[in-house]
């Protein structure tokens, strides 16, 4: 299996939309890309969408 196939089926983009279509209420924006996250606006701290969280985890793992 090549990297493109693996990432297309297991990465955060394969998870679907971040916020469910029938969800109500304001959601916090991702601090990196400004897309809505699954967290409410009242969440404290830096909120990341699944795509940016996945990328940050990869950067942290390789920075050692």
Q: Major sheet: order of its strands?
A: 1-2
Nearest-integer average pLDDT:
76
End-to-end gap: 27 Å
* Number of helical stretches of at least 4 residues: 2
Q: What's the oligomerization state? A: single chain
SSE order, one letter for each helix or strand: HEEH
Low-confidence segments, given as residue ranges, are none
Domain count, please report it: 1
Count of β-strands: 2
The shape is elongated
- The share of residues in extended strands comes to 5-15%
Structural class: alpha+beta
List the helices and strands and how they pair.
Blueprint: H1 3-10, E1 27-29, E2 36-40, H2 50-62
Antiparallel strand pairs: 1-2
Summarize the structure in words.
With 64 residues, the chain is an alpha+beta fold. It contains two helices and two strands. The longest helix has 13 residues, at 50-62.
List keywords for this structure.
single chain; alpha+beta; two-stranded antiparallel sheet; 2 strands
Explain briefly what this protein structure is.
Helices cover 33% and strands 12% of the residues. By secondary structure, it is an alpha+beta fold.
């Amino acid at each position: 299996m090549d990297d493109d196939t693996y990432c297309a089926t297991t990465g955060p983009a394969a998870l679907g939309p971040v916020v469910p279509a029938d969800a109500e209420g304001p959601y916090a924006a991702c601090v990196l890309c400004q897309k809505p996250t699954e967290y409410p606006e009242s969440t404290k701290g830096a909120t990341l969408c699944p795509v940016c969280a996945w990328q940050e985890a990869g950067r942290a793992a390789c920075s050692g």
